[in-house]
Design a protein that fits this description.
Elements: H1 7-19, H2 24-28, H3 39-53, H4 60-69, H5 75-82, H6 90-119, H7 124-142, H8 150-166, H9 180-186, E1 194-199, H10 205-218, E2 222-227, H11 232-244, H12 248-253, H13 258-272, E3 276-279, H14 286-299, E4 303-309, H15 322-340, E5 344-349, H16 370-376, E6 379-384, H17 386-403, E7 417-427, E8 432-440, E9 445-448, E10 455-457
Parallel strand pairs: 1-5, 1-6, 2-3, 2-4, 4-5
Antiparallel strand pairs: 6-7, 7-8, 8-9, 8-10
Length: 465
Amino acid sequence: MVNQHNINMERSVLSSIIFNPVLFEKVYSILKPHDFYLPAHQHIFEAMFECEKDEHPIDEEFLKNVLEKKGKFDENAMLDILSTNWVPNINAYAKEIKERSTKRQLLSLTGDINDVTVEKDLPAHEAVDIVQQKLYNIAQESSEKEFRESNEMARATIEHIKEMKARGNAMITGLDVGFFHLNRLTTGFNNGDFVVIAARPSMGKTAFCLSIVRHCINDNKGVAVFSLEMPAEQLMLRMLSAETSIPLQNLKVGNLDEEQWTKLSDAADSFSRRKLFVNDQGNITIHQVRSQLRKLKMKHPEISLCVIDYLQLMTSAGGKERHLEVSEISRGLKLLARELDMPVVALSQLNRSLESRDDKRPMLSDLRESGAIEQDADIILFVYRGDIYKEREEKEREEKAKRDGKEYKSNFVKKDVEDVEILIGKNRNGPIGTVEIMFKKAITNFADKYDAEPTYTFNKIDFNI
C-alpha cells in the first residue's frame, strides 16, 4: 500500500518558503497546517502564518521565537528542513501533499464510521448525518477553484449574449416563474440565485411558491421541495386544487361530482409524470439539505429549482446561537445555489413588529435575523395581501362598537379573488419595485393581473456596485 505521506516533500516545501518567503501565500492557498503529516511540520507552518500575519520575516530566528513561546520548537526537525534543498516547482509539491492529506482524512473517516455505528451505537440517521457532514467538509476543503482569466470570461460572456440573442431578445434569462411582470423585473430566477420569499403568517407565501413550482413542472422542469412545515400530501392537494380549479375544501372532504372526479384524475395522472420531488421531513439540517440535493441532482440532472419551506425551521449542527445558526444556513443555501448552478428559493417568516405600523407593507428590516439573509440573498420578494389587514381592522372596530354599546356596519366585503402585491425588496442585478397579481382564495392559487403595470425604481445597491 502506498504511504499517504511524504516527509521529504514536506521538508522541501517548508525549506523553499524559508529560502524564499514570498512563496508562503501561494502554498497557504493550497495547504493548511493539518495537511502536514509530522506534528513538528504542522507547528512550523503555523509559525510561518503568524510571522506573515505580524509582518515579520519568515526565517529561522523568527520561527524559533514563535515556536519557543508555545513550547513547540523541535530543533532536529528544523535542522532537517534547513538542510533540505528547496524546489523550483513548489506548486506541484504542495498539491501532492494536499492529495495525500485528503486520502488520510478519508481513511480516518472509516474509523469515524466504526465509532458512531459500533462504539457509540448511534441511531442510523444520526450516524449518517455525522458521516455526511464530515465527508462534505473533506470535499469542500479538497476542492480548489482558481481565478478565471479575462480572456476566458470574455468568451463565456459573449457566448451568453449570443444565447440570449438566439432566444429572440426575450426578457427572461433564467427560470420562468410564471408571472409576466415579475419575470420582466427579475429576468426570472437565474442559476446560482438565492431567492427569499417572505411574508407574515397567512399571507400565502407557500401558495405563492407552489404557483411557481406548478408552472415549472408543467414546463417540464424538475423541482425539489423541502417541506418542513407541511406534509407532501397537503402540498399536492393545493396544487391539484389550483390545477383543476376545484375548491381546496371540496378536495379535502372528497365532495366532488363526476366531472370534477374526471378532472382530478387527469390532473393527478399528469402530475405523476412530472419531475417533482418532495422531502417532508419535519426537522432537517443545512448539511442534510446539501447532501440530499446533491444526490438528487446527480440522479436527475433536470432538476432546475430547489424550494425550502421554510428557512427558520431549518437547523445546523453544533448548537450555535440562533443568529449564528441562521447565518450559517443562509450562507450555505447561497453556496449550494452556486455549486449546483440552479436557483434555490427559501421561504422566510417576518418579524411581527410590522403589525404595529400604519403601513404594513414589509421591508428588508422586517426579515427575522435579517442581517445574514439580506446579505446573502440575490432576490428578496415580499407577499402582501392588504385585504387581510382591512378585514382585521373592521373586526376590531366592530368589536369596539359592541363594547361601547354602539352599532357599527362594516363596508368591508370579502372577495373570492384578492389583489396582491409582490414587493421586490432586493434585486441584486435589476430594479426593485411592486408587481400586482391576484389570489384566488378557494383554490389557493396566485395568477397574473395583466392590466396592472409594475412600478419599479433602479437602485445602485441592488446592482452590487
